[in-house]
Amino acid sequence: MVTIKDIAREAGVSFTTVSNVIHGRYQHVSRATIERVERAMKDLGYVPSMSARGLVSRTSRLIALAYGHRDLGGRTMLEDAFASTLVGAVEREVRARQYYLMLSAVQNTEDLLQMVSTWNVDGVLAFGLSPKEGKLLRESTDKPLVFVDGVFLPGEEELCANVGLADRAAGAEMTQYLIARGHRRIAFCCGDGAALVRPGATRERMLGWEAALHQWGIEPTDNWRIVWGPDADPERRKAADFALLERLGDFTALFFENDMLAAHVLNFLLDHGVRVPGDISLVGFDGNDYARLSRPAITTMRQDVRRKGEIAARLLLQYITDNAMPTEHNVRLSCQLQEGGTVATLKP
Amino acid sequence: MVTIKDIAREAGVSFTTVSNVIHGRYQHVSRATIERVERAMKDLGYVPSMSARGLVSRTSRLIALAYGHRDLGGRTMLEDAFASTLVGAVEREVRARQYYLMLSAVQNTEDLLQMVSTWNVDGVLAFGLSPKEGKLLRESTDKPLVFVDGVFLPGEEELCANVGLADRAAGAEMTQYLIARGHRRIAFCCGDGAALVRPGATRERMLGWEAALHQWGIEPTDNWRIVWGPDADPERRKAADFALLERLGDFTALFFENDMLAAHVLNFLLDHGVRVPGDISLVGFDGNDYARLSRPAITTMRQDVRRKGEIAARLLLQYITDNAMPTEHNVRLSCQLQEGGTVATLKP
DNA sequence: ATGAAAGCGCTAACAA
DNA sequence: TTGTTAGCGCTTTCAT
User: Which of A39, A274, B100, B339 has its CA 20 to 30 A from that of B55?
Assistant: First the structure.
């Protein structure tokens, strides 16, 4: 290993001078010395030791990317193109600014906190955490911390940095799209029923759906909200599938809160002789492979995951640089309606 | 920050003793002291500093996960469920053994090497690298290094650790499956034509296809290999799509080298009124979402990506522990045929 | 413009 | 069984 001492010897200067050159503190170094030192670094192939730097400088240039690992129908949170797209985008941003990315699943918050301390990371980017984990994390560290799709209790939102979606607006827009195509009886379909009650993206999307219907004088009753049950409960989902078959006549369109569920139900319906969109229309939310690969492709609200990652990373890096939460720390990205072939236009 | 000095003071011992307790060197520490020290660590919430440890111990407990970032039809290597599943599995293994995972895209090998040195990582896991990058990496570092799906020139295979698939056997098995269902005129379909010539998974799968056909006295001519062109060239792919329509009569089945391409072509065919498997059968390779979500679901060879990641991680960790390449350093995992609905059984 | 010296938190060889 | 000491590579303060 080549150290600054080696460079100093090679260049015939003290290692303080080398350090100064490395950090661009040129004010007190002569032109000639700079060149000699830089030559020596090139020649010997000097690479700084992060351990040594970290030890003395109290910073690490390390970003922790912490993800929850909820079970999404047999796969973990990370085992999904959403996660990898996000991670990829974050890695790029982070690396472009000479930071490094440490990846960590959050089994329990303790482990994460221990990692944060032991490596003295400069900041934490968290996604897929439960509200509980998020809260705990927030309260246990004063490191710069940015959430992606964080879920907060009312009133706590402003306390931390977050990058999410304008879910309510998007939910309303999607509903309006259906209404414009002649649909009135539009069910809101989701996986976990609890998500309708607790704060979060699902609930927001539902509130958008409600608001749009309300605008047209439609007040959905409770049975307009169809719950499939959590990802991890295939039995219950199956029951919901069949229950839906009995109720198809009640609706002209189904608004699924996410594409994965939409694709699942779409395939179920097709397999059971229901024509989509001939017999019923449906739309999803997210704009991922599930929507893209289904036939017909699912009409959906597309979110730009790459952008989400970029923005979250930039927010965090700014947070770190300023050592203060940026003013615009609560970002809600808009979505784009992406037409597939699952929506029929109804005759008046 | 709590240091071992603080612990030493709190427990009323020297910090060497603390260090000894931390590392379980109990031989020379009295029972009572151990307990006092452990008490103090709990009470003060001691967390070791990796910087300090790394500086003195010359190891980091850091694994670099390096991935190439080839363009797969508009998305990068990482932006795919394959990558995230792999990463997730690796992270788990690594963390279970108290190692940490550093993620790094490989734009150029220099950057990776610099990262490896600057953090003094204990080992490197590489996937999605080009043969060139792989070779360069191998020659530039003597750190423990394990490839996933590495591609090597003949003769160089034994020089490094790799976890891949038994592609040739799987290719043959798939072809035999088709033959057993009455198919004889089976085309081999791939994206990048160059992959048929250079060593690698695609070529291996093709060789398996050839071998199986050969067993039945069938010698495919060159035009039995259909090339769609690289992912990044949609124009050319489109042309290939239409060219295929003209030649459908030449084959009863198409063996696609990967599911993504298979799904693309399947959808193209369906959109143009070709019935699958009525008019033509097709199969894919990988067993990912593309195969699963298509309708009909694509019959494919499923690879267990999670297992791939686990095994690669374990191999690397063993490599690190032993500080020598494990004997079984060339793993070829088998695949499993996964039936979908894209293969018809032909009447004799 | 350059250098000497102290010290970051920790490990390990050696001393007591 | 416990403590002392040196030193890992680097940054930073203070002298020169």
Answer: A39
Strand, coil or helix: A233:
coil
Question: The CATH number of A4-57 is which of 3.40.50.150, 1.20.1050.10, 1.10.260.40, 3.40.50.2300?
Answer: 1.10.260.40
Between CA B300 and CA B255 the distance in angstroms is: 9
Which residues are paired to B253 by β-bridges? Answer: B186, B281
Local structure of B302: helix, strand or coil: strand
Which residue in chain B has the smallest CA separation from A54?
Answer: B51
Which conformational region is residue A164 in: left (phi greater than 0), alpha (psi within -120 to 50 degrees), or beta?
Answer: beta
Q: Which residues touch strand D (CB under 7 A)?
A: A 1, 3-5, 15-16, 19-20, 22-23, 46, 48-49, 52-53, 55-57; B 12-17, 20, 27-30, 32-33, 52, 55-56
- Classify A167-303 by CATH class: alpha beta
Q: Evaluate if residue A73 carries a pLDDT over 70.
A: no
Backbone angles phi, psi at A222, to 5 degrees: -60, -35
B65 conformational bin, left if phi > 0, alpha if psi -120 to 50, beta if neither? beta
Q: Please write the tens of the pLDDT for every residue from B22-80.
A: 998 888 788 889 999 999 999 999 999 999 999 999 899 999 999 997 766 667 777 78
Q: How far is CA A257 from the centre of its chain?
A: 16
pLDDT tens, position by position, A208-234 = 999 999 999 999 999 999 999 988 888
CATH architecture type of domain B62-165+305-333: 3-Layer(aba) Sandwich (3.40)
Contact between B288 and B118 (Cβ < 8 Å): no
Two domains, one topology: A4-57 and A167-303? no
Between CA A9 and CA A175 the distance in angstroms is 71
Compute the count of residue pairs across chains A and B with CB atoms less than 8 Å apart. 143
Is the peptide bond prior to A296 cis by the omega test (within 30 degrees of 0)?
A: yes
Cα–Cα dist B290/B274, whole Å: 19
Q: Give the residue among B117, B112, B121, B119 at the shortest CA–CA distance from B144.
A: B121
pLDDT of residue A76: 76
CA distances from A6 to A192, B150, B311, B322 (A): 61, 37, 40, 31
Name the pTM for this structure: 0.93
**Tell me: the pLDDT tens digits for B152-175?**
888 888 889 999 999 999 999 999
- The domain segmentation of chain A, as residue ranges, is 4-57, 62-165+305-333, 167-303
CA A109/CA A118 separation, integer angstroms:
14
